[in-house]
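Hi everyone, sorry if this is the wrong subforum. Our group has a chain we'd like a structural model of before ordering constructs, and none of us has done structure prediction before. Sequence below.
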Amino acid sequence: GKRLPRWGLATEDPFTICRPRESWRLWRSLTLVPVGSVDRDFVQGLIRELSSRVPLRVEVGSRVSLVECQAAGGQYLARSLLEILPSKGEEVTLGLTEADLCTPGRLYVFGQAAVGKGVGVVSLYRLLYAHHGWSPEKGLLMERVVKVALHEAGHAMGLLHCDGACVMRLCTSVYQIDGAPTWFCSSCRTKLGWPE
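Answer:
Right subforum, don't worry. Here is the predicted structure as C-alpha cells:
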C-alpha cells in the first residue's frame, strides 16, 4: 500500500502535511541538515544569518544522502526528504538541498514542512536559477534562502501562513520572496513565545 508520512496523516492540501499542533511548545534549536551536495561555506553563512534572526541555537547537522529520496521526472518529492530528516524533541530540523523539489499539485516548491512537527526542507534550486536565465549574486541568493528557511522553520514550529508583513506570508515566486520581509510579525512571534 501507499506509505504514509511517519507522523501519520496524509492530506490533499499541497501547502501543509498535517494540521498544526493544538498546544505550542518551546523550540530550543534549529539544525540545518545538508541533503546531497551543498556548499559548506554557504551553510556556515546561512547559520550566521539565521542566528541573528531567531532566538534559537542554530547549528549544522550531519549530511544526508538524496539516494533514499523519491524522484519524480528529474525532481525530488519534498515529502520524501521530510521522511529521511531526523526529528527530535525541541529541535527544529531543516534540510537544505540544491535539488529541485516538487509536491503533488505543484510544479515546484521552494520548501516544505510538516506543520508543528519540527521538520522542514528548503531547496536552493529555484532560488538559484529561478528559470530566468540568470543566477542571482550571492547576497541576493542568501537573502532568498534566509526568507524561505525562516518560513519553513515557522511552519515546522506550528505557524500557518500569515497575511501581515511577515516572513510567513505565502510566496509562490522569487519576485514575491524578494519583496517579503526577513522577520516574523509580532503575532507570529507571540505564538512562538518569542520576545518582540
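For your construct planning: Strands lie at 29-35, 57-60, 71-72, 75-77, 91-97, 101-103, 106-109, 111-114, 119-123. The two ends are 47 Å apart (CA to CA).
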